[in-house]
Amino acid sequence: MTPTEILKQYFGYDAFRAGQAELVDALTSGRDALGVMPTGAGKSLCYQVPAMFLPGVTLVISPLISLMRDQVQALRANGVPAAFINSSLTEAQWRRVMSNALGEQYKIIYIAPERLLSPSMRELAQNLRISLVAVDEAHCISQWGQDFRPSYLDIPKFVAGLPVRPALASFTATATPRVREDILAALGLRDPLTKVTGFDRPNLYFEIKQPKDKYAALTQYLKEEDGSGIIYCSTRKEVESVAERLQTDGYAAARYHAGLPDSERSRAQDDFLYDRIKIIVATNAFGMGIDKSNVRFVIHYHMPQNVESYYQEAGRAGRDGLPADCVLFYARKDINTALFLINQSENPDEITRNKQLLNQMERYCETDGCLRRYILHYFGEQTAGDCGNCGNCTGSFDETDVTVDAQKILSHLWRLNKAGKRFMFTHTVDILLGKSEDFTDLSTFGIMKGVPRHYIRRLTNRLTALGYIYDDGYLSVTPKANEVLSGSVSITIRGNKPESSVRAERAKKRAEAPGYAVSESLFAKLKELRLEIAHEEKVPAFVVFSDATLVDMCVKRPGAEEEMLSVSGVGQVKKERYGRRFLQLLREEKPDAEPPETPPEFTAALFWAQVEIEDRPLQISRAADNINTVLIRYGKAKTSGMKLNALLIEAGYLENADGVKLPTERGLALGVTTVERQSAHGNYTQCLFDAGAQRVCAELALAAL
Ligand code: ADP
Ligand code: MG
Questions:
Q1: pLDDT score for 521
Q2: How many angstroms is it from 384 CA to the middle of ligand 1?
Q3: R_g of the chain, CA atoms, integer Å
Q4: Closest ligand to 63 CA?
Q5: pLDDT tens digits for range 12-24
Q6: Residue 129: which of 31, 51, 57, 54 has the closest Cα?
Q7: What is the pTM of this model?
Q8: Does domain 516-588 bear CATH number 1.10.150.80?
Q9: CA distance 300 to 290
Q10: What is the pLDDT of residue 498?
Q11: What is the per-residue pLDDT for 591?
């Protein structure tokens, strides 16, 4: 199968996304690679598809146990043989994984970095044919990042100890140039393909709110939102209090912070993943391990300390690509809390740096401009224009005319400048507020007495942004300010509009978004069925199908099992596993639909009449595909390349020579040939099956049913 065929067959997707194709290409041809792509862009597929394409096994190093479990569950649900190795395995489980791995039963094995250098892992690694080592969350190797994990430094040692060096892939969503350099150097990537895609997440809606009563604003929001979401608070105490109030008010919410016992934390996380609760109230301790794709909103109850953290946390919304909200509740008080936390440090340089970062965060909260644009500029990305999908672009604000106050500030500055003085903001405003010892004679002294400082700050920022004030740390008025002083231009700032009108507009926008123009009741029923199946299989709901897949199902409304494959996210295995039940539901919703076709009874004759035998010599997996096409049609259990290999060995056509399968004399006589292929770790031998040999494969598969 080609990578594109693998994408369709196993993952149910028609096309690679931006960046994926190039990375997959590099890795399948054995080249190292670094992928820097935002959350939800689809980094996992960049190594999972090559893993299915390459011979042998792919090792994935991933920092969190919960994340591994989810990923492995998701892969298995797609029919990809995968396992994980971490400290959560019992002795017996570990032995089973070990023996399965040696028996080449897995294509992908996830490993915790702490285990890499353990003697048992080293031994296993010596005996595996490893084509690819993929490092997820690769920024954990950088000491400059916030998520530094010392055990990530074991990765290069581990790789150096392998009998052949596999291709090395690394992925991260957060990489400043410095962290990127670190990853390349520390991991020892060789001539890697580096792919950095844009940071934009178009499906996320950003908004800043300055509610007088945050809790009231929160419940108002929750009233109209029935999806899953995260509420971030800056302190444990706040987490406790918000969670408790929500619970008292009847919301299914859990709390999560580092001060809670492990057991409660992992229960909260599981409850959230498995959709048993919809809301989690948490500190920033919650999140890195969360791969839940259907988080519909992330609310920051307080302003975070910097834009990086904000974007990372908010970015946990909408991984599935469907519309999701990122709302920040901002209050001036948050700045004091943040400053307090920053000042805890004993390193003066760190304090200075963090204050600068905080300042940029504050400006995000204060800006009247496009919020997305602000964030993307922050990360050094140019944007074509305003996004049209944030609170500032969609006009969740009322304009207030503040020309008179603007004139006061500008004329004050004009007077100071004329006297040859330029001061920093604080001193400038002190005079305006009548709080300074000097300049008491200036006619603008105290003319804004009693006006909140933050309002003057906001207005000054706005005037600076509009080019009326020049600010290089010291403020001066520009010639352009005459427009305002003379009254020919008026100045406005924005305040929050009433919540109800904003929500109504949002609801309208959401309804217009592609994919949301679906029947809400059908969508709800599909979600119910998904939850039912998830309970039966004891996996999180998003492992069964993502929200995006259910939405696509609503849109495409497949009527027959084969049509199910046209739904994004439905691969072969999921179609077989869940197709019928979902089709049933879709049919019930569509009373005029034709009754389901029951497949005719399966017979060997029917099988032979339909199985495709190709003239060209095929790889074993391709031969298995041809056989499966027929088996699937009759609801029979599928075969696989691995199963066929085992059958061929049993029947004496192949033999296993040090993990490499080679034809025996009998096999050669049958028409099994071999070719030399190149891969990352040198050459390897692959068996090919001509028409006669394909027929024998089909016979064996049939007999094994
Ligand atoms: P990341 O690790 O970059 O944050 P994931 O690998 O978790 O992102 O993928 C996010 C979501 O996007 C998943 O639900 C995944 O199935 C989906 N996805 C990935 N690639 C594609 C694609 N080519 N087409 C459609 N959906 C995709
Ligand atoms: Mg990921």
A1: 79
A2: 25
A3: 30
A4: 2
A5: 999 998 899 999 9
A6: 57
A7: 0.67
A8: yes
A9: 17
A10: 58
A11: 45
